[in-house]
Amino acid sequence: MAKKGVKKIDVLPGTPLISRNSSVIVIPAATSVRFQVVEWFLGTSEAQKKGEVFWIRQSDDRGIDYFKQKKKFNDYSLFIPKSLAGGTRFYLEASLSGFKDKEMTGVFVRAYAPYRLVKSYWKENTPNNNLQIHNGNPTKFNRPLLLNLVLEGVNDYECIVEIYNCEANLFSATDDQLVGSYTQTVKNGELNLEIAASETLRWKTKMGFKKPKERFYIMVKVKGQKEYIKDTTAKGDVRHAIHLYILNQVGVWLEPIMPTTNKVVTVNENEAKPQKNDHCKFETISVHDRDKVTILFNEKDPKTFAVAEKNYRFSFDLFYGTDQFEVPQESKAILNNIIKFLKNNPQIPAKVESFADIRNTEAYNQNLTDKRANHILSYLYTNGVTNKLTVGSYGESKAKQFQYLTNEDRPIHKINRKTAISFDLKNLKRIFYNTILPNMEQQTDLSVYVKGFDTAGCLFKGDKKHDKSKAKYLELVNINQSREAVKDISIAGEKLTIKVFSFEAGMFPTQIALTPNRYELRINSCAYFPDKSQTTIVVNAFTDAVWIIHAVYDYTGKYPLNCRGVAVDTPIIRGIAGLMEKAKPYIDLYLKVLNYFPLMGPLQGELLKLVLEYFKSEAEMYGLGYGKKWNFSGGKFGKEESYAQGNQDLVEKGILTLTILVMIVEIIIAVLTMGESAATKLPKLKKLAKGIKKVQDAGKQVTDLGFDFIFPKVAFTYGSYLEKVNKIVHFVTQFNIKADPVIGIKFDKKLALKDLLTNSFIQNDKDLADSLEKEKINRDDLLKDNLKKAARNKLGGKLKDGIGEGFQTLLDKAGIDAKISIFFSGEIKQEYQLKVSAPASYEQYDGKVEVKNQLVSGFNNSAGKSIGESSIKMKGQLEAKGRVYLVGCVPIDPFSAQRYFGNFATRIDAYLAASMESHFNHTRTWSAGDREGLYYQDTIYFSGIKGSVQLGVDSNRGSDDSWDAANKKANLVNTEFNLFGEHTFKMPKIQFL
Fold first, then answer.
1. Residue 908 in contact with residue 897, Cβ under 8 Å?
2. Cα–Cα dist 43/381, whole Å
């Protein structure tokens, strides 16, 4: 029977070729070249000739199938990329049956492309290192290096790499020194030259002038040729990999050294992304925490995940029967999933390694593992895998050695008859969710939604196979520092729910009180988090407690701090009611210090009696409180505890000591100033000062000049709590201090003309005042002795309400009076609002913690405001009255008019009222910001000078001569004014560098 099938194939007529001979056809690279069947064996039917055949592209030795597909006899196109052009030959044949013909019915084909170097990089040849070397990231001598070159047209050719040192860090054809020459074969379009650490030291011996930083470049040529390979630019430069910079230092290579800097440039950006696997993955993970939804992972948003430094090694074993080398049927299902995965991730290289047991000859076993590897490669390639595949065929050399008693095939032998397919999967870093929660009394339901979860195309089998219906769950509860065993938790649809709570924090914000309870979830897929022993989500549940200290001095009302959007304070204990009896010996002990001051010793006994009542009232001015609030929900704290009230005796002792110390200072001031210091104007010291004056018999009269001091009212609030900012929980310390004012002074004086006249007459004639009797004003003769009588009556204290009746009547009759009021006040206020924040010192994200990042995070969440305010207020008022009488048009004095003309005289009353006031305020605000650093800003407010003027005149006939009868409506002038206007000036920020 005549043989049937394909006898010969060739390119279509007219196809442009580079060359051809009896052994190989050379086609242009990166060009589709069509082949067809040109001759059949005699036994082939006409129908078969017009039908489809299997086109098979194989390796040069026909051991590996790269392509196998059924197409029409004249419809196969061969495309060879430039990276595979050069010395690589393929064998192409067509077959009716799909089996390879033992006869040479096909053709050998290779491609040609001009020699070109496409790209290059240098890096330190250390594990897991993807950082390129360049001017900003130099290396050192005595470090292992890797040079990677991507080339065209030279695949499978040996190339010579020459390394040059730039004599002046510039390129020079004459001065640059050749320091090394290496030969390497190009594989799959790449040349990877590994240079040992010691080799770089040898370079130094060949270098000329030494520089702090040495620069190197390379030149490449095909072995046996003179011309150097050019790059792909229009210039066609022959110098490549020009970014090798080496510091003129010697590094010590003892073990792999991980780079300590942040990523500068990566070798391949694709490597920094997780792999794709549409058949075993999830799309998003979100957490629902009370009323807030947070996206933890979104495969379309790279900001929600980070690739781990360490890869996960996937390895799948295909086991064979004795002498078997074809792909096992039972392994094809998982192998097909691997093919889908590799086709989705062509950037991932894979290894194919075949092994045999030792029950046959070494040569036989080597040939057997070659066939096993080739059949797996053929299966991968013919199903569309284009990944870089590295092959290992080990025969029996790596078989696990067992003592074979017989040559009988036993199950234990099977572990040596296998092909292992392995590749590295990019692992993702754990996702942390940090939250602030109530404690165990008020547990929170935390719902986790996993959307788009599909594991149908999982690469694993058995216990390693991923399961979309459940996750692994474990917890570490801070209260006993014990971890529960890992358990399964079901995923109902897309949702799983866990109950979480924070640690029961204690009386103080200690490290253990601030340590979170930790909950871990393992949600795994081939695309993301493939390792089922790895945690996917870590939930840190921090306490929501806030600790508050509140202290006041002579301050009424509350002075809370703001935490979680609400005002927070704690009850205050004032005074020492419970310790009053115990306080007397302490007071006596402290008062002994007065013996060291002049004239104070004799006063000690009297003072003890005087100060006890004062001391009790003084202690009431102090208040202390310390407490904690926790279990925040619905805008308020559900639990609170006052530690001050629970330790009242201790708090009162603190107030007692503070009160005594302050009291001693005040007594010394009061005594040394004879009881007339500014401090004695305080109501709390008036009784004490009076007693001191009595003891010292110092009854000297001191004129009240109108000055008064305003003493501080102080409130202090301190709080400690945890606060979540930008996914990270910070430990926050907040200080609020207010002194309103720190110190102030006030002058308020009202002066009347009658008082000034009276004082000018009486002066200080004490003897005269003691001998006076009440004297009457002579109304018939108003000028007769009336001034002296009025003065004496004033001095004697006989006149009503301290106003000299004689002077007042005299001034009223004379139609003259004036009053002036002067007010001045100035005070300094201070309020500090400081918030210091730093990330809590617990693992809150997966990765290396940098001090700089901690400082920036803490500084951004910190806030400080120190407000200093200086205020000055001024006010002045003047009121003057005058009266004249007219008889006809003739003015006469008031005395004659009253005495001789009565109702025939017309009284003309005139008055003037003027007021003027102004307000000046200066505020300095201290603050800090991430960009500005520490700075202050001044704000100045000026109210202008505001005032009013009123001028009025009234005429009247009759006996009623009182000022109140004046017609106030007869105003000639009534106007208000504002000089300069109201202004606020905000000054530039003053920064501290």
1. no
2. 32
Integer Cα distance of 583 and 575 in angstroms: 12
Residue owning tokens 């010395």: 87
Ranges of beta strands (E only) in 346-453 are 350-355, 389-393, 418-425, 431-437, 444-451
pLDDT at position 675 is: 45
Could you give the CA distance from residue 422 to residue 425 in angstroms, rounded to a whole number?
Answer: 10
Tokens 């390792």 appear where?
531
The answer to whether 503 and 439 are in contact (CB under 8 A) is yes
Cα gap 151→187, rounded to integer Å: 10
pLDDT value of residue 583: 64
Quickly count: other Cβ atoms within 10 Å of residue 480's Cβ.
Answer: 7
8 Å CB contact between 91 and 126 = no
- Beta strand pairing status for 444-451 and 284-289? antiparallel
Distance of CA 98 to the CA centre of its chain: 64
| Amino acid making up residue 819 | K
In one-letter notation, the amino acid at residue 765 is: D
Side chain identity, residue 686: K
Contact 240, 126 (CB under 8 A): no
Nearest to 453 by CA among 472, 469, 437, 477: 469
Alpha-carbon gap, residue 183 to 202, rounded angstroms? 17
What's the average model confidence in pLDDT over 57-80? 91
Which one, of 567, 561, 721, lies nearest residue 630 by Cα? 721
Residue 778's φ and ψ, nearest 5 degrees, are -85, 105
pTM of the predicted model, to two decimals?
0.64
Residue 803 DSSP label: -
**Which residues are registered as beta bridge partners of 821?**
750, 877
Q: Which residues of 791-807 are buried (b: 16+ CB within 10 A; e: fewer)?
A: bbbbbbeebeeeebbbb
**Which tokens is 712 given?**
């501080």
Q: Please tell me the distance from the alpha carbon of residue 629 to that of residue 760, in angstroms, as a whole number.
A: 67
Residue 253 pLDDT level (bands cut at 50, 70, 90): very low
129, with CB counted inside 10 A (0-12, 13-18, 19+), is middle
d(CA 674, CA 689): 8
Annotate 398-437 with b (16+ C-beta within 10 A) or e (fewer): ebeeeeeeeeeeeeebeebbbbebebbbbbbbbbbbbbbb
| 541 φ, ψ (degrees, to nearest 5) | -105, 105
**Average pLDDT rounded to a whole number, residues 611-631:** 77
Confidence of residue 678 (pLDDT cuts 50, 70, 90): very low
pLDDT of residue 625: 86
Coil, strand or helix at 784: coil
For residues 218 and 239, is the Cβ–Cβ distance under 8 A? yes
Quickly list DSSP for 87-102. Answer: S--EEEEEESSSSPPS
Determine the pLDDT at residue 573.
82
pLDDT tens, position by position, 340-389? 889 988 888 999 999 998 888 899 999 999 999 999 999 999 999 988 88
Q: Using an 8 Å Cβ cutoff, are 894 and 815 in contact?
A: yes
Distance of CA 545 to the CA centre of its chain: 21
State the amino acid at position 381 in one-letter form: Y
